[in-house]
Amino acid sequence: MQRRNERTKWLLYTLLCVAADVIDTFLSNAVSNRVPYESLQPSDVDDLSDEEIQELAKKAPRLHSKHAVFKLTPGTIAKVAQDMDEDMSDASEANALNLIFAKTTIPVPRVRRVVEFKWERDYLIVLDYIKGPTLAEVWPTYSIWQKIGVAFTLRRYIRQLRGLKASPSTPPGPIGKDGPRMCESPIFGRVRSRRGPFASYAELTSFFNKGAQLAYDFWHKFPKDHPRRETRFDDSEALVLTHQDINPRNIIVGEDGTLWMIDWAWSGYYPPWFEYVAMNCQLENEEDRGSYYKHWDLLIPFVCGPCFEQEKWLLYTMGGLQFC
Is the pTM of this model over 0.70? Predict the structure, then answer.
């Protein structure tokens, strides 16, 4: 009975996704998608030198007490790059945002500058300041139809991200020109969320399959003929650009109602189903912190597609990943 209910749920969400994509394709052809007007305007840091930006950042107030994000000027913010690798020649979050700005119509803060931030021994990313509340702040006031509208919009964004496929030679993880980078993702678990770097898609697959076998042997103690041992990490689709931290805190509702996606620090090239699992993981983390977004859990399979089997496989694997 449970298996039948799961298949019914998967079929329902799949049909909804297909119908939504058909409607979205029709509307996209009928209406011109343009980059938000704000992103095309000059910035108030355009004429500043790198040294002047560094000095401003040292004195700028933090927007968040727990994060290195500063209100640099009236029109910009600055955040310290979160790359975990040393001696990188670029900032992966800025690379992702520049790619999205160039290749999609997803509203994201435009990267204005990337400067070496000697104070923090890292790179400082200067971004447009987007006015408006976060979706987390206004979500309780939304009607069910407004929430469905948000889901449609986010699904459109995810479809565009999945159109940004990595080449066969591109390593998984953050985008950079210096080769493979350390990956941070809720997919790897709460205890050790940073793994890699992985030189190839095959290496990422091998990492997870090894963790699965360890979990089956020592955590679940499955017999050798258990059917679960025949399942493998799903690498059937190409790596695509993935946000990995989509939650109401990281979406700003602009003054005209535009949904802006922010905080791409964990973004990179991963299997498409990572977005679904990451959204669920981040929802659990939000609830652990005391935040509750009614109906958000019901929208995730629609936004990302119902990746139920991949998530189930990963849950069986978690016990072994901590030993990899």
Answer: yes
